[in-house]
Amino acid sequence: MKRAEQLEKTRQAILKNATKLFLQKGFGETSTRDIAKQIGITQPALYHHFSDKEVLYLDVMTNLCGKVRQDINKVMRKHDLSPNEQLWQITKALKKHHPLSIYDQYNQAMRLLSKSAQQKLNMIFTMDYLEPIAAFFRQPDVGLRPDILPKEAAELFIAGLTPIFGTSQLIGGHSITPEQRDQLILDCIINGLSNWGGKN
């Protein structure tokens, strides 16, 4: 194998394992030593490909978040789905890529990254998560309340999904499937917890 091919193969292995570890443990709990060890290289060899952990993290997030955006856009092109069905498909797309709470991981990384890396992550998050989900809320059939902007709704939606990634309570009890539990949580996010029917 040519050196250039070997270098590219190593780079892709680093990205693959870094993605897995960052998503499982978060930015703060993942070290470049852990990533290098996973693929059997030294930490200095990893730094040959990525100058530091932040650069690697931003590369991982650029790649991952681009896939998330593609999945959300695919859902948005399904015009035969009702708004509820679209939102459920968007939720499934987010959960497919994230084993832990998106919002919690984003906030943890924002606390730990340098200012320039924070700006880059915020741009990625806005472009690949907030904007496509805001596009969902802009649809007339959604009926977004007038005092909330679509981008604000997108952020509230992502933050509200946190229980889908795990809670201390078994929401819905033992008699429902994990998918039914996720649908119940999504219904609570969108329609609220009470049965008031609009009464004040």
UniProtKB/TrEMBL annotation:
Protein name: TetR/AcrR family transcriptional regulator
GO MF: DNA-binding transcription factor activity; transcription cis-regulatory region binding
Tree of life domain: Bacteria
Annotated HTH tetR-type domain residues: 8-68
Cross-referenced InterPro entries: DNA-bd_HTH_TetR-type_CS, Homeodomain-like_sf, HTH-type_TetR-like_transc_reg, HTH_TetR
Keyword annotations from UniProtKB, A to Z: DNA-binding
Keyword Transferase attached: no
Pfam families, sorted: TetR_N (PF00440)
